[in-house]
Amino acid sequence: MWITRRDWLAGAGGALLLGLGCTGTRAERPRLGLGLLHLDPVQGDLDANVALIERGMRLAAARGAQWVLTPEMALPGYLFRSVLGLDWIGVQPDPWTTRLAAVCRELRLVLFLGTAERDASTGLLHNSLLVLGQAGSILGRHRKINVIPGFGEGWATPGGPAEPVLVGALSVGLLICADAYNAKPAADLAQRGAQLLVSGAAWMPGEMGPNGAWEDRTRETGLPLVVCNRTGVEEDMDWREAESVAIQGGQRLMNHSGPGSRLLRVDLLLDHRTWSSAGLEPLAF
Predict the structure, then answer these.
(1) Cα–Cα distance measured from residue 74 to residue 268, given in angstroms and rounded to the nearest whole number
(2) Does domain 2-6+30-276 have CATH number 3.30.70.1560?
């Protein structure tokens, strides 16, 4: 389902804006266009998931996005280990990331990619969120800090500390799923100059769900947060009701859940660091 906090308002030229006490048209207000790929990846099928992400990137670019976000472990699927094992995990960029980097160069997009990586120095494995720039190079990364024992994450070594990544002129704080569960990672990012929080997630609702953690992090830091979650089912894990969200000041301004891979378009109004929605409905791809 697609829910917005306030009704859609018609802007100049037929543009549709989510009102947040803001006025003006697209031409008058500096915006950053984000495309969230709320994905249903294929467990353990790297080639299929590269193709899925590429389709989403192309649709996002056609709809005006400049940055494209993916969920936690979007490339291999969350429970990849039972299908692929661990030997495929290499130092980044690996062959699959390299294919997506070429799409970044072609479309002039920034891609936030959830995948696994091997540290070049230590050989340790990490659950990572990579930032690929418009030139296809890796601008920075975040390695999940709050790794969940079991739950398909026993292979990953916790990373840290959290450091912002400079993407264009914005200092971006990266989180992965349960990194938002307690205050410290987001607080560290804010203290180190982050202007925006971006999270990839594979976080189901329920007893162990986010349960207000995302809202709390925005209230504590004063920073806007966008979470790109996933959908689908892998073995005994069901994400079909998991939510992707955009939050400011403890208030959800957009959230989406439901089956099937969807593109969600949301804009960040750069002058006030607030969210605006850029499309009436999530788009299938």
Answers:
(1) 23
(2) no
Short-list 99, 118, 112, 123, CA closest to 72: 112
As a whole-number percent, the residues of the chain with pLDDT over 70 amount to 89
Measure the CA–CA gap between 116 and 120, rounded to whole angstroms: 13
Residue 67 and residue 90: Cα distance in Å, rounded?
25
In which region does residue 177 sit, left (phi positive, over 0), alpha (psi from -120 to 50) or beta (all else)?
Answer: left
Cβ atoms of 217 and 251 within 8 Å: the answer is no
* CA 266/CA 65 separation, integer angstroms: 8
Q: Which residue matches tokens 């009704």?
A: 7
- pLDDT tens digits, 17-50: 222 223 345 456 799 999 999 999 999 999 999 9
**pLDDT class for 273, splitting at 50, 70, 90?**
confident
Cα separation, 80 vs 69, in Å, equals: 20
CB neighbours of 50 closer than 8 A, spacing ≥ 6?
Answer: 75, 96, 99, 100
